[in-house]
Specification:
heterodimer; A: 14 helices; B: mainly alpha; MetI-like fold; 75% helix; 0% strand
């Protein structure tokens, strides 16, 4: 006798995602872009001989900060497949390296905000009553604050203090300069964006917890005498993985955009670090004479955001067919 | 209904107060002060300068003093520009208003009709291409669209300029750049709202009774279908305000955005507080106005 094999939520979702062509293409695009940004530089380095100068001259992935002042604004050729920028740096390497930082900021900030949002929303929804209404009024007030304004204030605040501490980090902890650069410049951005971007997640999780709290399986868990912590973490939250994944995917492009906006205004990533926002700012300066410097980073940036958004939309349709498409 | 409005008003005041307080303490907690960049300043002059802005007093005293000043309608003086904050704001605010309003007009003119048409032609080529464009509008930020527009449109159309802020024609490209992302959001929200209403029973009843499709859409569907779009006007306005920082930078428009960015970089306490206060108040006022408009459209919202 043959046993009918049931479909799990995930295999169902995967099938639905495959049917949605845009989302499926986007899925592979996202993976390709991540792989390019994070793994290509590694491969480039493996084949390279010791010393940055050699690498800058011979290999197609070069040191993104290596300046060759005699070769500024070079058009694409076999050594620089996207040409060079105003300081003779290889644009291809800079796009990939900038992508690392942009994607990293997006991911890290998303992790922080998801953590806060899920916890806050889950507690608010699970406790209910007075706690819930107080916590949600706080979110309402925070929601009213203009996001970019407050992110700018926070990131300037955090990074100024990090800068004050950089000598201490170098001397007492023995960190090297590139690590200090990241702690002083990149990390404050992630923290500021993450600390202030969790409201939507909290609202989504709260409303989901609120409705699943009344379901039979929770009642069963309560009558079995499980602790609240266990019910919330082991039974309710795993069932909300669908909406959580959807909103996480939709949050990443938003945060990448925030980072780029800050960098574009000169308040985000600072050189020698690089990011897509900084590349776009540079490109905009030279667009009259060398539009390539603007158009290439723009295309890659827009493709990344577009595919992440399409993927998020596709995941929503796949994991949560009931959710409205707004 | 009055109770809801009062509630919103109180919440709005809380938003403004917390925004002001956060800004106030944060700018003062930063290492250094507005005069640190001027290294040549003798200690005595620095002391005078700090005293002039009350910056030498304990922080809580400063806070109370500044609230008192605010209630007198005094926003203080910019430490870096040596001018009253109210003066700086009143010079740059009109530019920001023009930019914001024209951006909003473009967003509404493009977004809402596009959303309605997409909903009426659901799953057609028009629907798909509209939504594709909306997704592009969401994903391609203004600092990509702006320079590209300036490059390809601004330098080829004779009466448009790449940058600058003189006559009304200069407003065209910045407003389009600013409005497109909001238009994209509006199109998606309008489409969803219209689809929701169009699938309801009362629309089917009207169709069954043989009412003309155009009458159904205009008289019956629009009122309900546009509710989510009206609800989005508050957040959209906040988007436009912060979006204008970037658009002003691209097109060199003399609005408040640059003052905000510079005040943050220079740690100019009173200028920063003044601008943030104005932004916060504007956003709160627009939010309350859109809440009232919503209640007028949707009777179900009037009961608390």
């Amino acid at each position: 006798m043959e046993i009918e094999q049931g479909n799990s939520l995930w295999s169902d979702a995967w099938l639905r995602l495959k049917k949605n062509k845009m989302a499926f293409i986007s899925f592979w695009l996202v993976i390709t872009i991540f792989a390019l940004c994070f793994f290509l530089p590694l491969i480039g380095e493996i084949g390279a001989p010791e010393g940055d100068k050699e690498r800058a001259a011979n290999h197609w992935f070069k040191d993104p900060n290596h300046q060759i002042l005699t070769e500024t604004f070079k058009s694409p050729d076999s050594t620089n497949i996207m040409g060079t920028d105003q300081l003779g740096r290889d644009l291809f390497s800079r796009v990939l390296y900038g992508g690392q930082i942009s994607l990293l900021v997006g991911l890290l900030a998303t992790c922080i905000s998801m953590g806060i949002g899920i916890l806050y929303g889950a507690i608010s929804g699970y406790k209910g009553g007075k706690t819930d209404s107080i916590l949600m009024r706080i979110v309402d007030v925070l929601y009213g604050l203009p996001f970019l304004v407050i992110v700018i204030l926070f990131s300037v605040f955090i990074s100024s203090w990090a800068k004050e501490a950089q000598d201490f980090l170098r001397d007492s902890w023995g960190l090297n300069d590139s690590l200090i650069n990241i702690i002083v410049n990149i990390l404050p951005l992630c923290i500021a964006i993450g600390l202030l971007g969790w409201y939507t997640m909290a609202r989504v999780v709260r409303s989901q917890v609120l409705s699943s709290k009344k379901l039979e399986y929770v009642e069963a868990a309560v009558s079995l005498g499980l602790s609240h912590k266990k019910i919330l973490l082991k039974h309710i939250l795993p069932n909300l993985l669908g909406p959580i994944i959807v909103y996480t995917t939709l949050t990443i492009p938003g945060f990448i955009l925030t980072e780029a906006s800050l960098s574009f205004l000169g308040l985000g990533v600072e050189s020698p670090n690089s990011s897509w926002g900084l590349l776009l700012l540079d490109g905009a300066k030279y667009m009259e004479t060398y539009p390539r410097l603007l158009i290439i980073p723009s295309l890659i940036f827009a493709t990344t955001l577009l595919s992440l958004n399409f993927l998020g939309d596709g995941l929503r349709d796949a994991l949560d067919p009931k959710a409205s498409k707004d | 209904m009055l109770k809801i409005i009062i509630n919103r008003l109180l919440q709005g005041i809380l938003v403004i107060v917390s925004l002001y307080t956060i800004t106030f303490f944060m700018v003062r907690a930063l290492p250094g002060n507005a005069f640190t960049s001027d290294k040549t300043m003798p200690a005595k002059v620095l002391q005078q300068n700090l005293a002039r802005h009350n910056l030498d007093k304990p922080i809580m005293t400063q806070y109370v003093l500044s609230i008192g000043q605010l209630l007198d309608g005094d926003l203080g003086e910019s430490a870096t520009k040596k001018r009253p904050v109210i003066d700086i704001i009143s010079h740059s605010f009109p530019t920001s208003v023009i930019l914001g309003v024209s951006g909003m007009i473009i967003a509404v003119l493009i977004g809402i009709p596009a959303g309605i048409i997409a909903a009426l032609k659901k799953n057609s080529l028009i629907d798909y291409s509209t939504m594709m464009f909306a997704m592009i509008g969401l994903s391609v930020p203004s600092f990509v669209i702006g320079p590209l527009l300036a490059k390809f449109v601004g330098s080829n159309v004779p009466f448009l300029k790449v940058a600058g802020w003189g006559d009304p024609l200069d407003w065209v490209l910045p407003s389009i750049t600013l409005g497109l992302a909001t238009a994209a959001y509006l199109a998606r929200i309008t489409r969803a709202g219209m689809l929701d209403v169009l699938s309801q029973d009362y629309i089917r009843t009207a169709q069954a009774k043989g009412v003309k499709q155009s009458t159904i859409v205009i008289k019956h569907a629009l009122k309900g279908g546009l509710i989510p779009s009206v609800a989005f006007i508050g957040p959209a306005f906040a988007m436009l305000v912060t979006g204008s920082f970037i658009v002003e930078t691209i097109f060199q428009a003399p609005g408040m955005g640059q003052h905000f960015v510079n005040a943050t970089k220079d740690r100019d306490p009173f200028l920063l507080q003044g601008i943030v206060l104005l932004f916060g108040t504007l956003i709160v006022v627009v939010n309350i106005a859109s809440d009232i408009a919503l209640m007028a459209l949707n009777p179900r919202l009037r009961q608390a």
